[in-house]
């Protein structure tokens, strides 16, 4: 912790406290406005964190504290990292010199806010984007600590945060909007075109032509519906509101059903190899969500992979959130295609990742991971024996408590 203090360093060391960076000591005298009232932060603990057992350097955000005279008495390691200023240079300096902040219009922030000379009823400044020297953007908020309401400022507490996380969130939202707009444009254009043509020239088309147009409209409407469902799933996953309605699930039967659907749509039956262990534990899961997982993984294997698609279902065990080992079921889907490059393995389950240019929104595997984790399971990706992609997810038994007691 990098804190300026007026107390004797020797006394602190004698008490076993860590050595602190200090500002020049003041001669002893009667308590002034800096003396802390009982239960309040004192000069050696400007942020008032000692009573909570917290070191300012443990805080994830930058913390800068100035005393009643406007001089910096606390400058934690996060603040040093964000500002690229050594703590020794900041401690004891005026706050406006240690943090020469400007707003986005280039105006100096401290004269604008005037924490020491402005209205005494103010309690602080809300978080806003400001600029450090060199134009680096930082999120800054301030709290005015007073001895009593409308009294003089006793402490100025400033928090600093980098803008990287907010930038990433904004980029993610922009990418989501762009993807949705792109994915909606094509099917909606088709739906609009065919319905307008049918309405305007119904009598000119044969029954077969009408059927073809209506089938195209139906397929595009299903595509829009699927995209909307994916967006709703993402919203629930990100907000932690994805509901899992558990009931007994025969996962081997579910795998067989998906394979039959793919062969009915034109895939060769010999392209699929299903291997199911006979000693599978009972599985309690949401059957609709399990279908969503299997459908996505098998569709990816067929669309992006090559050769035989192998589905292995076997018993396994996993460690739950409480650190206990419990029974589970593992499902592995492997193809014989080119596989996923090593440098892309870490991005497979992120939004908008696409293994190829063969269609898709890039949201499916992100949703699959969210569903598996909502069941308390795990999912991994790797390279299969034949060099193709291998996806393996493990689900715990998930039986209700009344069945396990």
Automatic annotation (TrEMBL):
Q: Which UniProt keywords apply?
A: ATP-binding, Kinase, Nucleotide-binding, Phosphoprotein, Transferase, Two-component regulatory system
This protein's record includes keyword Transmembrane: no
Q: Which intervals of the chain form a coiled coil?
A: none
User: What does the UniProt entry say about where the protein is found?
Assistant: Cell membrane
Q: Which reaction does it catalyse?
A: ATP + protein L-histidine = ADP + protein N-phospho-L-histidine
Q: From the UniProt entry, list the residue stretches annotated as the region Disordered.
A: 1-53
What Pfam families would the database entry show? HATPase_c, HisKA
**Which segments constitute the Histidine kinase domain?**
179-399
Bias type Low complexity, positions: 7-21, 34-53
The family database entries (PROSITE patterns) matched by this protein are listed as: HIS_KIN, PAS
- Cited CDD domains: HATPase, HisKA, PAS
Q: What is its main location?
A: membrane
Q: What is its EC number?
A: 2.7.13.3
- What's the protein name? histidine kinase
Q: What organism does the UniProt record list as the source?
A: Streptomyces toxytricini
């Amino acid at each position: 912790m990098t804190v300026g203090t007026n107390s004797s360093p020797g006394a602190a060391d004698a008490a076993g406290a860590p050595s602190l960076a200090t500002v020049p000591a003041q001669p002893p005298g009667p308590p002034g406005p800096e003396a802390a009232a009982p239960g309040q932060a004192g000069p050696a603990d400007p942020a008032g964190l000692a009573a909570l057992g917290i070191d300012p350097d443990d805080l994830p955000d930058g913390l800068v504290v100035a005393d009643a005279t406007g001089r910096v008495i606390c400058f934690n390691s996060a603040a040093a990292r964000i500002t690229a200023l050594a703590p020794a240079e900041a401690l004891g300096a005026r706050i406006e010199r240690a943090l020469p902040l400007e707003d986005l219009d280039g105006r100096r922030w401290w004269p604008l806010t005037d924490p020491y000379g402005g209205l005494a009823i103010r309690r602080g400044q809300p978080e806003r984007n400001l600029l450090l020297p060199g134009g680096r953007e930082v999120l800054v908020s301030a709290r005015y600590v007073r001895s009593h309401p409308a009294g003089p400022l006793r402490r100025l507490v400033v928090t600093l945060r980098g803008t990287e996380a907010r930038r990433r969130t904004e980029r993610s939202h922009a990418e989501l909007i762009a993807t949705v707009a792109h994915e909606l444009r094509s099917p909606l254009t088709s739906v609009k075109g065919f319905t307008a043509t049918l309405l305007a020239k119904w009598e000119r088309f044969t029954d077969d032509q009408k059927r073809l147009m209506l089938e195209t409209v139906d397929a595009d409407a299903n595509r829009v519906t699927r995209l909307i469902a994916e967006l709703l799933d993402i919203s629930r996953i990100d907000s932690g509101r994805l509901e899992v309605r558990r009931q007994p699930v025969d996962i081997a039967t579910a795998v067989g059903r998906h394979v039959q659907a793919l062969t009915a749509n034109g895939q060769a039956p010999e392209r699929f190899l299903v291997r199911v262990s006979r000693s599978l534990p009972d599985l309690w899961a949401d059957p609709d969500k399990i279908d969503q997982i299997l459908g996505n993984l098998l569709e990816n294997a067929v669309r992006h992979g090559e050769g035989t698609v192998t589905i292995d279902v076997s018993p396994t065990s996993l460690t739950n959130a409480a650190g206990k080992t419990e029974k589970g079921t593992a499902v592995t889907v492997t193809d014989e295609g080119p596989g996923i490059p090593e440098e892309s393995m870490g991005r497979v389950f992120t939004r908008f990742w696409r293994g190829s240019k063969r269609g898709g929104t890039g949201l499916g595997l992100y949703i699959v991971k969210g569903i598996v984790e909502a069941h308390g399971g795990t999912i991994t990706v790797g390279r299969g024996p034949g060099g193709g992609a291998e996806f393996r997810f493990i689900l715990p038994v998930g039986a209700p408590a009344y069945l396990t007691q």
